[in-house]
Design a protein that fits this description.
mainly alpha, 4 helices, 146 residues
Length: 146
Amino acid sequence: MSDAADEGRSLRELVASATDDLTGLVHDEIALAKAEIRQDVQRVKLGGVVGAIAGVLALVALPLLAIALAFWIRAWWGAPPAIAFLVTAGVFLLIAGIFAALAAAKFKRISPPERSIRSAKESASVLSGVRPHPRAAANGKAGTPV
């Protein structure tokens, strides 16, 4: 009878140990996912800042610089005012396009947490192959064998 009691205690210890290991694994998976998401959040912030800079520059500086450039084109080339303003608008649209392309490049670098997904799939495949110990199942302690 003491052998059965010893086996019961060691089985409890094994279950407790397996539970602790599984809990640790889940916590590690969550920590990895958080780390990857933090990196993506930083990229979003940087892309947002670059995009905001492009927007602010276009909205605040465009009218003043456009008028100054148009008058300079008119004075330098002798172009009619309408042509001078069209050329000016084209220059500023080109600059805004460059900033928009920089922002888009930052946003494209955002990806799902691939390492976390791969690690979670590996853990799931390992755990799916776990079966109860045959001796414990035969005693009716761990349920029916799979």
